[in-house]
Write a structure and sequence with these properties.
Elements lengths: L3 H21 L3 H14 L14 E6 L11 H5 L5 E5 H5 L1 E6 L16 H18 L3 E4 L10 H13 L18 E6 L5 H12 L4 E8 L1 H5 L6 E4 L6 E4 L6 H22 L2 E6 L5 H14 L3
Parallel strand pairs: 3-4, 3-5, 5-6, 6-9
Antiparallel strand pairs: 1-2, 7-8
Helix pairs in contact: 2-5, 2-10, 5-6, 5-10, 7-9
Length: 300
């Protein structure tokens, strides 16, 4: 007969082995996002809610964890699924996330850096994890699925990002979200200010508040190249050759600063926030700033 100590050690080994098996099934990016979210959540306190609103928004299918008191039995009786009623207050606590997966996001200036696309997805998943831990619901903008909470929702978002990694537009298409919804956009935001203004304005006109996170490679800010350099566009932008790339650095810096100033101004006018993140910097400070901005949106 085995001693109690042997049994305990075997049980612990089984638990660790099972945990390793579960972790091995997670996409590496999701594991990294969870690590970022765990680090940031240590400095974030729980938030208290003030109660639910009464204005109906839409029906959605019942999910494990939903209160049975919210089931709409009349709507459910007309189908083979169970539905609950969502109110606009609940929608206001839901966040729609979007990331730019256009070809330009595949850029990185050195092998030691993440591509902009990988960093944008890491930030998106880490934010989703933080929000879900705080009891919020999340959805991918343009995915057609209603916001949801819980670990299963995070897994769905990660899986959807993986399957939709093909080329996408540089900016999200407008979709009619409920009033007071929240949108977070991750991308390099190198489209023209007029294009970005049109995107922000369409959402803001419906009362949707948002946050833009510009994800950049450090070389895109500093233009560190010297000598004869040929620049090739990644989205059929053509190419340009400079005999001395350093000769245009000052003019480039001035134009880049003007573009950023324009984005900051249009975000401020619309009541949105504009944040900048570089791929040579750790993601945690950005995640904390973004999460606190959303918490302020929710009136915490």
């Amino acid at each position: 007969m085995a001693s109690p100590g042997v049994t305990v050690r075997r049980d612990r080994h089984d638990v660790v082995h099972r945990a390793e098996e579960l972790a091995s099934g997670l996409p590496p990016l999701l594991v990294a996002a969870d690590q970022v979210a765990s680090t940031v959540s240590q400095g974030v306190h729980g938030r208290r809610r003030v109660g639910q609103g009464e204005t109906f928004w839409q029906f959605r299918r019942y999910e494990p964890g939903d209160a049975t008191s919210r089931i709409d039995w009349r709507r459910s009786a007309r189908s083979q699924s169970i539905y609950i009623r969502q109110t606009e207050w609940e929608a206001a606590q839901s966040v729609w996330l979007w990331r730019d997966a256009s070809p330009s996001m595949g850029y990185r200036s050195s092998k030691g850096l993440s591509t902009k696309a990988n960093r944008a997805e890491l930030l998106l998943l880490a934010l989703a994890s933080l929000l879900i831990r705080g009891g919020e619901h999340v959805a991918l903008l343009g995915d057609g699925q209603p916001p949801a909470g819980g670990r299963a929702a995070l897994q769905r978002v990660a899986a959807r990002l993986e399957t939709s990694a093909a080329s996408t537009p540089s900016l999200p298409a407008f979709e009619p979200l409920p009033r007071y919804a929240r949108v977070v956009v991750f991308g390099d935001l190198l489209s023209t200010p007029d294009e970005i203004k049109a995107m922000v304005g369409a959402f803001a006109a419906r009362g949707v508040r948002g946050h833009m996170v510009q994800v950049l490679d450090p070389a895109e800010e500093t233009l560190p190249f010297s000598g004869r350099v040929r620049f090739e566009g990644m989205e059929e932008d053509g190419e340009v050759l400079f005999g001395r790339a350093e000769s245009v650095r000052d003019a480039y810096g001035t134009a880049f600063a003007a573009h950023r100033d324009a984005l900051e101004a249009l975000a401020r006018t619309a009541g949105w926030t504009f944040l900048v993140h570089r791929t040579d910097r750790p993601p945690e400070p950005m995640m904390l700033a973004l999460y606190l901005a959303l918490a302020e949106d929710f009136g915490v």
